[in-house]
Amino acid sequence: xxxxxxxxxxxxxxxxxxxxxxxxxxxxxxxxxxKPTVPQLAYCLDRVSAVAEKKPELKNVEPFKTVxxxxxxxxxxxxxxxxxxxxxxxxxxxxxxxYRADVKQWLVTAKDPRWKKPYNELTYQPMQEVLxxxxxxxxxxxxxxxxxxxxxxxxxxxxxxxxxxxxxGSMGRTAYGYDKDGKPILTKLPELVLNDVDAGKxxxxxxxxxxxxxxxxxxxxxxxxxxxxxxAGAGPRLAMLVLHDDAAREYAYGPAQGLPDTREGTFTQSxxxxxxxxxxxxxxxxxxxxxxxxxxx
Amino acid sequence: xxxxxxxxxxxxxxxxxxxxxxxxxxxxxxxxxxKPTVPQLAYCLDRVSAVAEKKPELKNVEPFKTVxxxxxxxxxxxxxxxxxxxxxxxxxxxxxxxYRADVKQWLVTAKDPRWKKPYNELTYQPMQEVLxxxxxxxxxxxxxxxxxxxxxxxxxxxxxxxxxxxxxGSMGRTAYGYDKDGKPILTKLPELVLNDVDAGKxxxxxxxxxxxxxxxxxxxxxxxxxxxxxxAGAGPRLAMLVLHDDAAREYAYGPAQGLPDTREGTFTQSxxxxxxxxxxxxxxxxxxxxxxxxxxx
Lengths: 297, 297
Description:
Chain A is of the alpha/beta class and about 300 residues long. Chain A has helices spanning about 1-10, 40-55, 65-70, 70-75, 80-90, 95-110, 125-135, 150-155, 155-160, 200-210, 225-230, 270-280, 285-290, and strands at about 20-25, 140-150, 165-180, 185-195, 215-220, 240-245, 280-285. The first copy, chain A, has a seven-stranded mixed β-sheet with strand order 4-3-2-1-5-6-7. In chain A, β5, α11 (about 225-230) and β6 (about 240-245) form a beta-alpha-beta unit. The first copy, chain A, is globular and about 65 Å long. At the A-B interface, α8, β3, β4, α10 and α11 of A face α8, β3, β4, α10 and α11 of B.
């Protein structure tokens, strides 16, 4: 609140003009739950059966065979190379319009395994409040996520009030062409334009925004460079990291403070040390958040 | 005006909600003069001497030797391969901050050879009026140009009132790193993320905006796909092409209506025919524009 007060007070030497008020937010683990797996991966796994209906030859080919078997333990052991094959098969080959419609439809029916709720109800209430508070003070809020840009665009306007043009994510190339009626279409290709994690986050911010943020929020080592880049700007800059230390109400993970390491959302001791040294605020979910989800009493 | 009236009247069945009001504009030849060469190429040619100061070995290597000779006729004959070498040498290797500062500085001193004015005074007054008129009616105006995104960002806010995040251009990759003091920097690499012409325009719109425009403006075959894509959307869509047919007040070029063909801004007969068939409006600079530049009496 002190950051917002000082940057929006026209009489303050630290005033920031409205057009420069940019705040960037990681998504998975920062705005919504990323355990036991990031929702986009759940989508991809759910989509394998639909893809296999259209391409039956995949049914006997790994890793699709394992996914179709429904053996959760085996699915959890899939390698990065397996996952890449699944991403390519489920996220490319369709038009951008088809893809967006399919993600929207999936979100209506898919449920998180722990809370049995649609994934987009598992956003963090305090972060929703931060988004609204910043916007009420003239900040434009962006998502800057390692997740797929088009995936996030399918629900971010409804879920966070963040429009498609303010979603910076991992970007796939599209190919312009025409359908059989001669109507222009954009087809999603299996080629990554930008992998929006680590150094890719400031690179993605440059590509899509062209301005350095004044505030940045993350929860893992994948956000380190975005926070460094944000803090390195002149004048007041805010950097915050969400620490998942509440196993009872959500999850506890990351080696910082002796929590276990995980594939998604690694919060290393080195990141924790850098945060403390650099004036980044570490948010303890356990101690700092009264309520985690809107649906809690 | 009929398009704006119908899309902004809440009682109209063709009403378009504010968040969807996107208008895209090509730059070179649509918003400002692109003859005798696009201003960005003039910048690159001017920058060769500064580059050669730092890398003297280039002084005796083609195509740099020719550029440094000042022989305009020889420079005009450089091949695309030569030009690519010049673009790489002059547009990459520096940080994004250095580059932006350098372009800003260049624009203060460089002059167009015909009017002897800074390039950003050579914008078309009627197009400036269209930009303002659309914005006054809730439209967000974007530039979607084959020119370099970072080049346009250096002046578009001042010149057109269009902020950096609304510039879609040919995009170069950047590399995140640290300067000798450990400060984060983004260095411009000689690698194109997206070539924002032809099919690249709707692809760039998808990448950066994620919404289909309701209005699109261009002047050449490089804008064809952007206009097709725009017009293919449901509801009212506006597509307009500027025809350079006024040799006295500006230039006349493009095979349409028997005008000469040129490298920049080719307006072919086939584009003209498609425009007439598809309900795109062709703007005659000669007949439709009372005044071309703001500085005219």
